[in-house]
Design goal:
Structural class: mainly beta
Order of helices and strands: HEEEEEEEEEEEEEEEEEEEEEEEEEEEE
Mean pLDDT: 92
Number of strands: 28
Low-confidence stretches: 1-5, 153-159
Number of helices: 1
Helix content: under 10%
Shape: globular
Radius of gyration: 18 Å
Distance between the termini: 30 Å
Amino acid sequence: MKDSKSAQTPIEDLNELRSYFSTHNVVREYISHSSKVHSVGWSCDGRRLASGSFDKSVAIFNLERSRLVQDFVFRGHTGSVDQLCWHASHPDLLSTASGDKSVRIWDTRSRKCSATITTKGENINIAWSPNGATIAVGNKEDLVSFIDARNYKVVSMYVTEEQFNFEVNEISWNNTSDLFFLTNGLGCVHILTYPTLELQTVLKAHPGTCICIEHDPTGRYFATGSADALVSLWDVNELACLRVFSRLEWPVRTLSFSFDGRLLASASEDHIIDIGDTETGEKVAEIPVSAATFTVAWHPARYLLAFACEDKEPPERKRDAGNLKLWGLSNS
């Protein structure tokens, strides 16, 4: 569900893309929290951006033309908000995973928490299936729980849960919601059928820990980021590695595909965010940053990238700043 008024026409030519970002490379910074931002994400219509923070809150911004305006803040978690994700087709529903052993569903229309689901451990990962039916949440003990999201207004019990005997770093669904992906500490991607959770295959993706995974909106690719500082781009159907991005020097923490699947943003402790071309692997642009970046998110219909860094507040530079940033704005 995308807002057609604000949707951008995809740019096909690589040189045209580079030219576009040479004139659309302004970064705007917004104060959103009192401490570090852990996760940012866009609603499916691209009208809102949410940020979750160590300060236990979730800030909601509206995108107005080419700037973000803070609308309100959700409070209720008693621990750090480590990851958030929006419903794939309902622009008002948002889920958050917290270290307080709960998952919360928020409704931006009522500005209230619609449901609180108690979980067994401190949660670090959350993924809402594209068909909207299931929310998967992973905790620090590598237990992944599946929550039936269809009755989110009533506190729902798990559909099932799965204890894994390896380090689960990030979880993701394919675009048809029938395959479930996990990255692990052995450099592998485990692909399971859903809802039966039968292991379909294990991809040896990286020599180092496989940290993050992201599926592209068009359904052609998924990408994995690793402690070896490499990003691998995979064909969804063939499960073959198409190319590797190697411009970063530190473990890759976060990935995001642009709305057209053409651009892949990768970030780490490097002082750049890399914007790569999925068709050639070449660099399209880079965003200079002054600190480690742990979350990036492309807008669902425009070449706008939201991100948050581990910035410190001046002048003493000791306290974490709770700022988020928006890149891709016109410099004219």
